[in-house]
Amino acid sequence: MSGPETDYFTNAKYINLEHGMKVVTARDSHRHGPEDGPVYLQIADKPTLVQVTDLNNNPRVIDLSAEGISNAQLPPGATIVKAEKLVENEVQAPVNPLKRLSESIVHSALFGSAALHGTVELCHPNTRMEVQSIIMAWATNPYSKRFLWLSGPAASGKTAISMSIAKALSKGHRLGAGYFCSPHIRSSNLIPALAYQLIQDPRLVPLRHELLGSLDRHTYAVADGIEVQLEKFILDPLRRIPEGHRNPEWRRLVLVIDGIDECPQEDSAGYHVPSVHKMIVSAFLAATEDPAFPFRVLISGRPVVPIQRFFAKAGKDKALEIFLDEKFHPDADIEFYIRSKFAELLADFPDSSRDWPGEEKILTLVRKASGLFAYAVLAMWFIRHGKRLPSAQLDCILGLRGVTTEDHPFAALDALYAKILSGEDGDAVLPAMWVAVIASEPLQSLPAQFIDRFLEPEGLDAVRIFPGLASLLRIPESGDKSSPYKLYHQTVKDYLDDPNRCDPSFYTTPTQRKEYLLQRYLFVLKDQEARQGLWTNDQERDQFLDSFASTVPHFETWISELSPDKVYFKPEDYLACDVDWFMRVLFERLKDGAEVGATQAIYDNVHRDCQQLCTPACRHWRSSITRARREYRYEAPGNDCTCCTAL
Fold first, then answer.
1. Which domain of life is it from (predicted)?
2. Which of 503, 545, 495 shows the shortest CA–CA distance to 378?
3. Residue 294's closest CA among 325, 331, 353, 254?
4. First CA to last CA across the chain, in angstroms?
5. Cα(583)–Cα(479) distance, rounded to whole angstroms?
6. What local confidence, expressed as pLDDT, does residue 86 receive?
7. What gap in Å lies between CA 40 and CA 195, rounded to an integer?
8. Any residues with CB less than 8 A from the CB of 187 and at least 6 apart, and which?
9. CA distances (Å), 610 to each of 65, 613, 623, in order?
10. 98-327, what's its fold?
């Protein structure tokens, strides 16, 4: 090929190529003809030319394998760029802000999600009618206060009420968004999740436009604090909407946020923030006083002290406050619920006596519930699903010791938990440790499939042998590889965490739980042959290792806390670990600097016993860490310590 002009370029680079095209370092670029002719790319010695200048159409590919480059039919003025190699990273197009918003939230907390459908119950028909009526009247009265705080003791039915209200509002096209808090979902998920739901409403198209534009401008808004998130995601976009584009219908919409006290008291980075519950309530109450914010807000939760103080002072008289106490007659609703469930049982067990269970036993069960709906629900589950006949199961519950008093309001509920944890016949002990650890970090948000394998044999045995476990937590269906275990009620964890409530046979301290999980951690690191049995194919292996890698920062932090002055594991255990394999897992599966922090923490923990020279265990680990960091192009840890000279 030839042209009127020939220019030679070296070390040329093409940048800002469209998404999906590789960045190339080009050598010996040859231009034939005018400068405005098309450009073709030839990579190394591959027999193709790809036209790269017309980015609005699919790149044109010319096959050179048959005719050779000298015979290729190229337009006049064509430029051929011969690339020596491809750079590994790809040019990434800007991420769609809606997609980024969707990926930043935990969808299982949203109203209507399949996860909530399986774990959060509605109020039983014809119960809690009075409080529901008050809340719906508040939601529909244009002159009522725009913030409602629904509180009450643990197990009083707040979440069932919130879910029932959200469903009623949704049916009447009044629900703006619904969010149900959980201990394993950080509070930083709340505002993005509400924003995501709001912009799905076709009445809020102007907000959708402004909100996505705001997200595009504020790249890191998802990681901000509650007040900043609320401003960037909702308030600022609302203020940008011209008055003529605002819809009066917006003032009918209600945001429902349930279980605010269950949000972990930490920010998006995991740092402890003890005032986060009050911050959420305060931020939304302030929002309802902003002229640009048209929505009503219903927040429910336990009456934790910071929130009580807030409504006694700064929030005084600014919200409608509803407390679920005796004035709402919970005993009457619980009695109705229990009678309804016994009627269902009699229909399913036609051989039972028509007089069973009898008035006295029903009223005794109501008294034991003492206003706690969680007790009534759990008791009726126990009666229906136990190994023995319902009559025997009922007598078992009524015979449990545990008298509810003002000083011990959960005594009957605690006795029922102890009965379930001890097994149907009282001769087997369900591993309460297992229940406690899956309800805490770092396992509570991880897939049940991973937990079963990580805690083997305790995990699988607990689920298979003790059917009573299904009364305490949601167990994902067989074949579900992503859903976590989820406690049906926070009172289960309250019971296991409180030494004054929990049966001594089941209580374990936080330190004991950490030690238990660290032994499982060590098992994965050192027992190569047994480790292979934790998965049956490559997909299961990858899923297991992704979850396992995410736990490492937690475990190494615990090691430093439990053993600040010496190494935690025995030297022979450290020496038995497959560190090269472990480093590959971390560097290939942890991202955004987490892999560097984890390996530094690991090195600090294993190096803790070293004096003038490093121990054999330290050298074993340090050599693998150093190799891995060099391979993955990170600086090795400990450059200024004795470990460098000891290797």
1. Eukaryota
2. 495
3. 254
4. 59
5. 30
6. 42
7. 45
8. 181, 226, 263, 264, 265, 266, 267, 273, 276, 280
9. 63, 6, 15
10. Rossmann fold (3.40.50)
Domain ranges (residues) in the chain: 6-90, 98-327, 331-399, 413-508, 518-526+535-647
Position 458 scores a pLDDT of 53
Residue 458's nearest CA partner among 479, 435, 440, 478 is 435
pLDDT digits (tens, 9 = 90+) for 164-217: 999 999 999 999 999 999 888 888 899 999 999 999 999 999 999 999 887 776
Contacts with 316 (C-beta within 8 Å, 6 or more apart), sequence order: none
CA distance 583 to 317: 57
What is the b/e burial string over 69-91, where b = at least 16 CB atoms within 10 angstroms of the residue's CB? eeeeebeebbbbbbbeeeeeeee
Q: Are strands 254-258 and 296-301 parallel, antiparallel or unpaired?
A: parallel
Going by pLDDT thresholds of 50, 70 and 90, the confidence category of residue 357 is: very high
The whole model's pTM is what?
0.73
- Left (φ > 0), alpha (ψ -120 to 50) or beta: where does 635 sit? beta
Q: Give the pLDDT of residue 367.
A: 93
Handedness of CA 416, 421, 422, 423 (dihedral sign): positive
Provide mean pLDDT across the span 140-153.
95
Report the helix count and the strand count for the chain, using DSSP H and E. Answer: 27, 14
- Evaluate whether 367 touches 379 at the Cβ level (below 8 Å): no
Angle at 618 between CA 645 and CA 550, to 5 degrees: 125
Q: Return the closest-CA partner of residue 472 out of 527, 422, 519.
A: 422
Averaged pLDDT, 153-166:
94
DSSP 310: H
What pLDDT is recorded for position 300? 97
Lowest mean pLDDT among 35-49, 56-70, 379-393, 554-568: 56-70
Pairing of strands 61-63, 48-51: antiparallel
